[in-house]
Write a structure and sequence with these properties.
The protein contains 14 helices and twelve strands. It has 418 residues and is an alpha/beta fold. Strand 5, helix 6 and strand 6 form a beta-alpha-beta unit.
Length: 418
């Protein structure tokens, strides 16, 4: 089938240059990069060149990049590695994690595991568009920053389901002010982690300018391959390795490196750096997203644009549309029958009949959340593909709406409009 792929927040098509580099590794550079012979060291050199490319993409130093198997492992290494490294000797040295309920499950689930191990987990409120308010973070830092011990903040840069961008620089400034005050009074250590899995490759990311301590990214979100990710760890930030069994990655992540995926990630980083300078292309893709959104709303006036009006904007490639009183799974199956690939929130949550916890946390009614579908474009998306989607989506939704019992289709006052 000629697939119309609008699920790029789940994964992206590996760029041709990435595939070529990976094929070269599999065919010619398959030695273990930890081996001391020349063959192994020639592979090590390519891995380090990839590390330099990834570091340059996010404004980091090469030694601050730790390669992992992907974003999930990098998030676990950041949260569990940092908070477990600070195991308190007594109750006067607490560990606290400040986060939100709209994070990816790779943050939400480790947070719950940490709670079970004695970490205090605080969830910040968000506004109707899914944005964290700086004043709420400041208040949480003031309340919990006077207790001593380790205080960790983990907030995603851009939401994987709605595309909403958080005001990371403003949040970092609030953390900087709290860090300076708490250090003088209590000796509290504050660490700022950002899950930038959806941001890197789509937005300019500079870890130094943003003021973050730890940052997560994954190659397959910016046209690299699945199986390679990275954790940026600012020099001086301590964390405990979670993957034990070898001295790789400067003793920070054991296990023989997936050299093909890592070297492909380096190529993808170079391509992303070039792409981010092409503002004309980015604006053109954003216009395609907007036209898809507007056309569907025009054809289906009950459609709700989730996260519209976010103060800090959305990713240029993402729209999350709610079709009230329908089921997202049924919509996705109908779209798939017509060759259109989309998603109901995070791909790793597919198969669940429950509405997205991200949308519910934003205050979106269940009648809308149950029928919400995410469409996400890539740098390869074309006008022809969007025109095709504009034909398919309304047809599928109308067919499902006609099949619904009449009593389930009555309007409800709880369903917001765009």
């Amino acid at each position: 089938m000629d697939w119309l792929y609008l699920d790029n927040n789940a994964t992206t098509q590996p760029a041709p240059q990435v595939r070529a580099a990976m094929n070269e590794v599999l065919e010619c550079l398959w030695a273990n990069p930890s081996s001391v012979h020349r063959f192994g060291q020639s592979v090590r050199q390519r891995v380090e060149l990839a590390r330099a490319s990834v570091a340059r993409l996010i404004g980091a130093r090469e030694r601050e990049i730790v390669f992992t198997s992907g974003g999930t492992e990098a998030n676990n290494l950041a949260l569990r590695g940092t908070l477990e490294a600070a195991t308190p000797s007594d109750s006067s040295s607490p560990r606290t994690l400040i986060t939100t309920r709209i994070e990816h499950s790779a943050i939400r689930q480790p947070s719950e595991a940490l709670r079970e191990r004695g970490v205090t987990v605080i969830h910040l409120p968000i506004d109707r568009a899914g944005v964290v308010r700086v004043e709420d973070l400041t208040a949480a830092l003031q309340e919990h920053g006077q207790q001593g011990g380790l205080l960790m903040v983990s907030i995603q840069w851009a939401n994987n389901e709605t595309g909403v961008i958080q005001p990371i620089a403003d949040l970092a400034n609030a953390i900087k002010a709290a860090r300076e005050g708490a250090a003088k009074v209590t000796g509290t250590r504050i660490v700022f982690h950002v899950d930038a899995t959806q941001a890197v490759g789509k937005l300019p990311v500079d870890v130094k300018a943003a003021g973050v301590d730890l940052l997560t990214l994954a190659a397959h979100k910016f046209h690299g391959a699945k199986g390679a990710g990275a954790l940026y760890a600012r020099t001086g930030v301590r964390f405990r390795p979670q993957q034990l069994g070898g001295p790789q990655e400067r003793d920070r992540r054991g296990g023989t490196e997936d050299t093909a995926a890592i070297i492909g990630m380096g190529v993808a980083a170079e391509l992303a750096e070039e792409f981010l300078r092409d503002t004309a292309t980015i604006n053109a893709i954003a216009a395609l997203r907007d036209s898809l959104e507007a056309a569907i709303v025009a054809e289906l006036p009950d459609t709700v644009v989730n996260s519209v009006g976010a103060s800090s904007g959305r990713l240029w490639n993402t729209t999350n549309l709610g079709f009230p009183r329908l089921e997202a799974e049924a919509i996705l199956l109908g779209l798939s029958e017509r060759g259109l690939c989309a998603s109901a929130g995070a791909a790793c949550s597919s198969g669940s009949l429950e509405p997205s916890p991200v949308l519910l946390a934003m205050g979106i009614p269940e009648a809308v959340a149950h029928g919400s579908v995410r469409f996400s474009l890539s740098r390869y998306t074309t006008r022809k593909e969007i025109d095709r989607a504009i034909e398919i989506v309304p047809a599928v939704v109308r067919r499902l709406a006609q099949a619904m019992p009449a009593e389930t289709m009555r309007p409800t006052s709880s369903v917001p409009r765009t």
